[in-house]
Structure formats: structure tokens, C-alpha cells
Specification:
Elements lengths: L1 H8 L7 H11 L2 H58 L5 E2 L5 E2 L1 H10 L1 H17 L6 H15 L6 H14 L7 H16 L13
Antiparallel strand pairs: 1-2
Helix pairs in contact: 5-6, 5-8, 6-8
């Protein structure tokens, strides 16, 4: 306060603006300049933080939108696959919810040896399902079918692959059609490990 009074007492009313600033600079000591510099730096920092916050907010919105779109695409792919499967003369799964194997699907399982495959590869396949953090029985079914489709026929050994090719040929199927059988069996094994009933799928179905 004394610095301010001394400054205003030391200037006359007929001083120009330039002279006022010169006198002000004469009165300021180094500590005042440091304080002003800190205030300027703080203001600049707050502006930067505000800009970063806005950018992160937009980024989060884009990520949420991408995740939602990914789930929609997966569901559409599976719906298309089920519709296709239902047009086959010998469908492997019944296209209602929850998905179950038909007589042909059960026959394919026995001929190819999917149950032995699952015992060998369950840890890997179930881990890929869990990576998407499914929240309920329906999500587990969706992710199980996706993983089976992506991993088939890579996870088959030579004998299983030969059996799958022969079975698909004998039934007029594509080799990849058999992935739906693996998906249903994988879902069932995950349900069993978690104590989940297949009937719970409909409780969380979006339809």
C-alpha cells in the first residue's frame, strides 16, 4: 500500500501515459516482477489445461462412439450369419435366441472332435472372449461366436482340419460354416465355468 501511495504522490496530473509507466517501472522492485511473471505463467498454464481438457473430452466421445459402433457391427455380422445358416438345407444351429445346435451341428461336433479341441484350447479362446469384458450371458454368447469365427480353423490341428473339410464337403457346407458349432460349444463351456444358465441369454437380449 505504501508503495502505491508513494507512487501516486510522486506523479503530477499533467504526466503523459508514457511517463506514468516509466515512473511505475521505477517504483517496482524485482520481487514484483517475479510475481507478475508467475501470474502470467499461471494464466498461460490454465489456458493450456483448458485446451487439453477439451481435446480429451472430444477424444473420449470418439472412443465411446467407436466402441458402440464395433458392438453394432458384430451383432449385424452374427445376424447375417444366422440368417445364412437358416437358409441351409442342413443348418448347424437354430437361429433363435439362445442359439443351440441342430442335429447336424451335434453330428458335426462328433465327427470333427470340437469337444477335444475345446479342452485343449479353452484357456486361449475364453481369454479372447474375456478381453471384451462381457457383462452378461448375451454378451458372452456374442463374443463366443465372434472368437470362434475369427479363430476357426486356425485352432484346429491337422486331423481336426481334415475331418472338418471332409464333413463340410459331404454336407455341401463352407468350411467356415462350422465355426458356429465351435462358437456355441465355447459359449456353453464358459457358461458352465461361471455357473450361468443358457436361458439367461434372453434376459439380456436387446431385441
Amino acid at each position: 500500500m505504501s508503495l502505491t501511495l508513494h507512487f501516486f504522490n510522486s506523479i503530477s496530473y499533467d504526466l503523459s501515459m508514457t511517463e506514468i509507466f516509466l515512473k511505475l517501472s521505477d517504483q517496482l522492485n524485482s520481487s514484483v516482477f517475479v510475481l507478475m511473471a508467475l501470474l502470467v505463467a499461471t494464466g498461460y498454464g490454465l489456458l493450456k489445461i483448458g485446451g487439453w481438457t477439451e481435446r480429451f473430452s472430444h477424444l473420449n466421445q470418439k472412443i465411446d462412439g467407436a466402441l458402440s459402433m464395433e458392438k453394432t457391427v458384430i451383432r449385424l455380422e452374427q445376424l447375417t450369419e444366422l440368417i445364412y445358416n437358416n437358409t441351409l438345407k442342413t443348418p448347424l444351429v437354430k437361429s433363435f435366441s439362445p442359439i443351440v445346435l441342430t442335429h447336424t451341428g451335434l453330428e458335426a461336433n462328433a465327427s470333427i472332435g470340437f469337444e477335444l479341441l475345446l479342452k485343449r484350447e479353452f484357456s486361449k479362446l475364453s481369454g479372447l472372449v474375456e478381453e471384451k469384458s462381457p457383462k452378461n450371458a448375451y454378451d458372452i454368447q456374442v463374443e463366443s461366436m465372434r472368437v470362434a469365427s475369427e479363430q476357426f480353423p486356425v485352432v484346429l490341428n491337422d486331423i481336426e482340419l481334415l475331418n472338418a473339410k471332409e464333413y463340410a464337403y459331404s454336407k455341401g457346407l463352407r468350411l467356415e460354416d462350422l465355426s458356429s458349432v465351435l462358437g456355441v460349444l465355447l459359449r456353453n463351456e464358459i457358461f458352465k465355468s461361471k455357473g450361468i444358465s443358457v436361458s439367461e441369454v434372453d434376459e439380456h437380449s436387446p431385441s
